[in-house]
Structure to design on (127 residues):
């Protein structure tokens, strides 16, 4: 997560630099100062990364980062998709003692089942 924030800060400063190069004639003094500050920030962060001073980079990024934490709905959607991908891709080999009896075929590592339980007019799904 921290690397993503660092990358986002570097991308934001790069985008502003490219936009300023596209519109050189309409640059005001105020936007020029902001652009210069962003360029200095980018240079400072990249220098600290090269020197492997990551705590200092984290401190700078924490002060400049304007991203918000994910809400519970977004986390649930991402988590369910990750579990779905894990169920689709995770396979295991059968134990060695079973190999002599039958050919070696990979089988799913996880089994996904539903069991509905009724408890005082409430229904629960157990996975």
């Amino acid at each position: 997560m921290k690397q993503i924030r660092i990358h986002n800060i570097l991308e934001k400063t790069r985008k502003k630099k490219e936009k300023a190069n596209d519109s050189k004639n309409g640059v005001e003094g105020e936007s020029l100062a902001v652009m210069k500050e962003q360029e200095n920030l980018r240079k400072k962060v990249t220098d600290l990364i090269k020197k492997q001073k990551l705590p200092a980079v984290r401190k700078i990024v924490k002060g400049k980062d304007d991203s918000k934490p994910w809400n519970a709905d977004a986390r649930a959607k991402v988590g369910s998709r990750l579990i779905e991908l894990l169920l689709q891709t995770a396979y295991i080999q059968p134990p060695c003692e079973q190999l002599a009896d039958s050919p070696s075929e990979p089988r799913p590592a996880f089994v996904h089942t539903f069991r509905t339980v009724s408890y005082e007019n409430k229904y629960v799904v157990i996975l």
In short: The chain has two domains: 2-64, 72-126. The mean pLDDT is 74.
